[in-house]
């Protein structure tokens, strides 16, 4: 079963220009019942999802009618089926009492904000000699900050965990490490043996709906720009958690890579090892990295840029969802706020070190691969020979 994890059902957010309804393709107004939709599809789902089990929806066609902005009114059965298929949540539909309660809560909060604003203005007037600028949102910290994860956060993290187990865990380095170390062991054989790990990780990242909703060309750019960096971190996670007995110098790796390159790669794995034993941290961190525009610390001819501002904003918004979840998770795992900051800083620092090691690895790979290019499997060839002409 392919588990998909979604952002919080029922929570709205302001959309950017270019966001589309995932049901019919019209411009979206925000996240409705957990999915990005337009206003008509939001209203349609609210009206009809509550009728499931009380009336029977029937399709006059073959059960697979197209649902577009032009055809969405032609078949309620297929339209509702598509709403459910893409993840719209019936449980997020509020009853009349719940809507009234929410409106009352909104009004109460509005009054509290207005009262707080008046108090802040009075305080500023009496203390105008000392003005303190505090950042908003995630960067603001107070003693009342909540360190707990919501029930939906736990559900989301559980789904991420199980999806990683399904897609990535079956593909380890055992095949690589059992290769005979002789003159027949070449770089292209080693890389071709990694193709299943690559496919498994792409399957994992494609389960993220925010990633899947990115246009195909932009997704390919993210993969080509980032996957080399991410696969090495994923390899560290696989090696440490799936095959811990293999934490030693491998004759296979030493045969394939120059000693200085291998030692740098091993040092990277050692640097990240304190983080890989947490059941969730790296699995979640890999998602945030894949939603980065470009992870390489060295600007090269292989860097492919996305010039569409709307797509770039959508990618950034998607990344923010998982960055915030990562931060809440770290807060919940650490004893206090200061320890959380130290923990995240350490993770970022070691990740940057890993990125500098990738520069050394890339230089070696781009020296050797041209002579073995014709022997690489297509999926590996696309990974190490990115096209310079792609754009979005």
Q: Give the tally of structural domains.
A: 3
Instruction: Give the fraction of residues assigned to helices.
Output: 55-70%
The SSE order reads EEHHHHHHHHHHHHHHH
Q: Could you give a short account of the major beta sheet?
A: 2 strands, antiparallel
CATH superfamily of the largest domain: Retinoid X Receptor
Query: What is the beta-strand fraction?
Result: under 5%
- Strand order, main sheet: write it out: 1-2
Q: Quickly give the structural class.
A: mainly alpha
- Number of DSSP strands? 2
Question: Unreliable segments (pLDDT under 50, ≥5 consecutive)?
Answer: 1-14, 126-145
Q: What is the distance, rounded to the nearest whole angstrom, between the alpha carbons of the first and last residues?
A: 32 Å
From the spread of the alpha carbons, the general shape counts as globular
Radius of gyration: 25 Å
């Amino acid at each position: 079963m392919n588990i998909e994890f979604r952002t919080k059902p029922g929570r709205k957010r302001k959309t950017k220009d270019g966001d589309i309804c995932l049901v019919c393709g019209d411009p979206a107004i925000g996240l409705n019942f957990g999915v990005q939709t337009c206003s008509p599809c939001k209203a349609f789902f609210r009206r009809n999802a509550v009728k499931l089990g009380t009336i029977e929806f029937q399709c006059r066609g073959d059960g697979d009618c197209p649902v577009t902005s032009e055809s969405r009114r032609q078949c309620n059965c297929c339209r509702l089926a598509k709403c459910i298929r893409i993840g719209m949540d019936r449980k997020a539909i509020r009853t009349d009492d719940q809507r009234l309660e929410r409106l009352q809560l909104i009004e109460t909060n509005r009054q509290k904000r207005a009262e707080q604003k008046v108090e802040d203005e009075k305080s500023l007037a009496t203390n105008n000699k000392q003005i303190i600028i505090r950042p908003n949102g995630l960067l603001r910290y107070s003693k009342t900050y909540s360190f707990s994860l919501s029930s939906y956060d736990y559900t989301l993290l559980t789904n991420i965990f199980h999806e990683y187990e399904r897609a990535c865990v079956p593909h380890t380095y055992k095949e690589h490490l059992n290769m005979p170390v002789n003159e027949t062991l070449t770089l292209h054989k080693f890389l071709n043996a990694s193709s299943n790990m690559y496919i498994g990780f792409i399957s994992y990242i494609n389960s993220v709906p925010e990633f899947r909703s990115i246009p195909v060309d932009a997704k390919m750019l993210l993969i080509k720009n980032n996957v080399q960096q991410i696969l090495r971190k994923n390899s560290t996670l696989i090696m440490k958690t799936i095959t811990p007995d293999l934490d030693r110098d491998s004759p296979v790796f030493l045969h394939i890579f120059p000693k200085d390159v291998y030692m740098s790669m091993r040092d990277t794995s050692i640097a990240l090892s304190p983080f890989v034993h947490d059941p969730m941290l790296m699995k979640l961190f890999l998602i945030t990295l894949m939603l980065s525009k470009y992870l390489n610390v060295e600007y090269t001819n292989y860097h492919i840029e996305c010039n569409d501002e709307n797509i770039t904003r959508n990618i950034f918004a998607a990344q923010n969802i998982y960055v915030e979840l990562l931060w809440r998770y770290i807060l919940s795992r650490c004893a206090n706020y200061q320890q959380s900051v130290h923990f995240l800083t350490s993770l970022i620092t070691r990740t940057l070190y890993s990125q500098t090691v990738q520069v050394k690895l890339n230089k070696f790979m781009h020296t050797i691969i041209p002579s073995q290019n014709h022997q690489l499997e297509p999926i590996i060839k696309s990974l190490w020979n990115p096209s310079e002409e792609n754009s979005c």
